[in-house]
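Quick review question:
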């Protein structure tokens, strides 16, 4: 993926997170979520383990939004 596409996907994920934060909070409160496009693709209470797992699956941070849900 190009850098421009990565940024557009990241922005799309960020907007989706903002618009769906209450719904996401219901399922993932206190955890880090990884969002790609308009869906949560993984979650963990440990950000490092979440990133490590994403990398092991070939998913790299460029377009992926990782946020803590409080």
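Suggested answer, residue by residue:
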């Amino acid at each position: 993926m190009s850098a421009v596409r990565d940024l557009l996907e990241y922005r799309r994920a960020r907007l989706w997170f903002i618009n769906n934060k209450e719904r996401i909070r219901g399922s993932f409160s206190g955890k880090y979520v990884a969002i790609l496009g308009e869906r949560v693709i993984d979650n963990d209470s440990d950000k490092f383990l979440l990133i490590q797992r994403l990398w092991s699956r070939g998913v790299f941070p460029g377009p992926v939004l990782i946020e803590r849900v409080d």
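Why it works: Residues 3-69 form one domain. Residues 3-19 form the longest helix (17 residues).
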